[in-house]
């Protein structure tokens, strides 16, 4: 039992610190040098893209609105994936709890009742947060679509841009929370799988956020 506790007390805090530390580093980079991150450049391009709505003709305006609808569908897909995974997790946990004693040993970590509950609640919380943020992002993008199509008499361009940007940011948060839930799901198989999944996730996100040559 001592070996089990050692694995949990070493690998789990390390994995959580690694994931949280990367997100703090990303937030700091977005605040200080947004041009070196993919998210910062996408935000800059979105603002330029939005401000060209009124300048383009009707054909280009329709094409840009279709692009906004594509982002809307992506956010809807993320929210559906999050809530479906959470429902499947609840069904899986109900069965796995009864057979948790078969997953014994230091590799699988502690499978006691309280620890098993912590694993389920942490993964479920991430998935529900992803669903909530994505759902709010969908609402903001729908409002932005309506505001963009309405005349200037009934909507302000600044307000429409703010709503659209809020929808995109909520969609990004929902997407990141969904990805962060997968290492927590792997935690049910033990702290070693949790650590490996967290390292793989941080490496993948770093390549996505900083892998391009954005500073040029």
Total helices: the number is: 6
Low-confidence stretches: none
Label the structural class. mainly alpha
Shape: globular
Radius of gyration: 21 Å
Oligomerization category of the chains in this entry: single chain
**Number of strand elements:** 0
Residue-averaged pLDDT, rounded? 80
The largest sheet, given as strand count, sense and whether it forms a barrel, is:
none
First-residue to last-residue Cα separation? 54 Å
Helix content: over 70%
Instruction: List the helices and strands in order.
Output: HHHHHH
- Which percent band covers the strand fraction? under 5%
Q: Any overview of this molecule?
A:
The chain has six helices and no strands. The protein is mainly alpha-helical and 216 residues long. The protein starts with a helix and ends in a 6-residue tail after the last helix.
